[in-house]
């Protein structure tokens, strides 16, 4: 692997833009980031960025599939296909995300993800950093587009079998479910990012979960509680919900689906202003319809996942509610930039360093800094992905 020197680029650092930057990668890692040129050896490959942006590769902590594949299809081929689809959109670190489903389906997904992770093959596209155990521990009244038959409360026997595979790095459970406390404690022992999602939890339930290590809420405003949904469940006096808990606790982080179909600009701006770029992630929550024409598709396992319809912009459940996104991270970045007052370094941070920090991988990736893996994107001035580099090697679609 010859060294690569990027010249004539504006490097997007977490806190600022670095114009006319020189960025050197050697043996897959960044060894020089400066406006001064480094000393290089003769075998260096020079890439003239022609004034484009050099961005860190994106990190997606909530993603179900793409290009016809759902990670829950449970085959290594499906996992490879989805990881390639997301690399096309600038994601270089990915956390395949489970849906509700049977234990067998979830185990098949975990095994397939382990297989592909161990291949460490550039052609696979985005590198698997771990799995997000998302379904099946959802509240019955907040399953959203997931199949309700596939949801249940956590039992140690079930989740220990998932944790023991070693690949689970993010763990979701609705805080009000019986068994949630023990689940969170076990996930904390395993050093997972612990999140509450698809939940109708009240403030006191969130406070208890927080004590046990819960620190994040999945897709803010989607399939989560608000004051009126908690009132329907628990009566009066009206109580705080997940929303107030996340906004009122500076340690709590969350994520938004910035595809333009889920949340209006004022909500994206509000989330950014309330939580800031170091506590708000961009996620795709993309399903298998990414990069496919409008039509009917299954959400979750190919055989028995619930049906949804893609209109080419967003997914729709049969009951008229939203059914996750069909967009890649590059789209989320452009939308967030357009819809909010966040600066470009902040928007990119929300798609790279912030999710990397929350999942404990920021020592090796997530920003353009000496010592980290050279996970890099060349972006046009209108933020389209032009070239993708994973650990210092260019990924080109086969
Ligand atoms: Zn969801
Ligand atoms: Zn999702």
Question: How would you describe this protein?
Answer:
By secondary structure, the chain is an alpha/beta fold. The protein has two domains: 4-55 and 377-395, Roll (Urease, subunit C, domain 1); 57-364, Metal-dependent hydrolases (TIM Barrel), CATH 3.20.20. The chain is built from eleven helices and 23 strands. The protein has helices at residues 76-88, 103-119, 156-163, 180-189, 203-211, 227-234, 242-248, 265-275, 329-339, 344-350, 353-358, and strands spanning 4-12, 17-26, 29-34, 45-48, 53-56, 58-63, 65-66, 69-70, 91-96, 127-128, 131-133, 168-172, 193-196, 216-217, 253-257, 280-283, 295-299, 306-310, 314-316, 322-325, 376-379, 385-390, 393-395. The structure holds zinc ion (2 copies). One zinc ion is lined by residues 144, 198, 218-219, 223.
């Amino acid at each position: 692997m010859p060294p690569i020197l990027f010249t004539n680029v504006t490097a997007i650092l977490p806190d600022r833009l670095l114009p006319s930057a020189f960025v050197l990668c050697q043996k897959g890692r960044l060894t020089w980031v400066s406006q001064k040129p480094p000393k290089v050896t003769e075998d260096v490959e020079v890439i003239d960025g022609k004034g484009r942006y050099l961005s860190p590769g994106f990190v997606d902590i909530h993603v179900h599939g793409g290009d016809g594949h759902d990670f829950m299809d449970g085959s290594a081929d499906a996992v490879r296909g989805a990881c390639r689809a997301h690399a096309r959109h600038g994601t270089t670190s990915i956390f395949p995300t489970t849906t509700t489903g049977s234990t067998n389906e979830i185990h098949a997904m975990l095994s397939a993800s382990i297989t592909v992770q161990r291949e460490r093959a550039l052609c696979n596209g985005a590198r698997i950093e771990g799995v997000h155990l998302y379904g099946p521990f959802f509240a019955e009244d907040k399953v959203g587009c997931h199949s309700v038959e596939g949801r249940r409360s956590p039992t140690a026997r079930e989740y220990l079998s998932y944790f023991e595979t070693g690949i689970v790095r993010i763990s979701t459970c609705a805080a009000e479910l019986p068994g949630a406390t023990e689940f969170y404690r076990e996930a904390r022992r395993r050093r997972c990012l612990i999140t509450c999602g698809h939940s109708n939890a009240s403030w006191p339930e969130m406070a208890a979960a927080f004590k046990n290590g819960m620190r994040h809420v999945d897709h803010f405003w989607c399939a989560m509680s608000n004051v009126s949904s908690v009132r329907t469940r628990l009566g009066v006096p009206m109580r705080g919900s997940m929303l107030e808990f996340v906004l009122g606790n500076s340690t709590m982080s969350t994520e938004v689906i910035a595809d333009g179909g889920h949340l209006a600009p004022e909500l994206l701006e509000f989330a950014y202003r309330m939580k800031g770029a170091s506590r708000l992630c961009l996620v795709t929550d993309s399903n298998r319809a990414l990069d496919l024409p409008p039509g009917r598709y299954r959400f979750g396992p190919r055989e028995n996942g619930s049906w949804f319809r893609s209109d080419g912009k967003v997914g729709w459940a049969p009951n008229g509610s939203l059914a996750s996104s069909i967009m890649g991270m590059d789209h989320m970045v452009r939308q967030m930039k357009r819809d909010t007052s966040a600066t470009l370094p902040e928007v990119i941070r929300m798609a790279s360093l912030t999710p990397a920090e929350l999942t404990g991988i920021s020592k090796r990736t997530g920003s353009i800094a000496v010592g980290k893996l050279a996970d890099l994107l060349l972006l046009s001035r209108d933020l389209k992905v032009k070239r993708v580099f994973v650990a210092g090697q260019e990924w080109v679609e086969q």
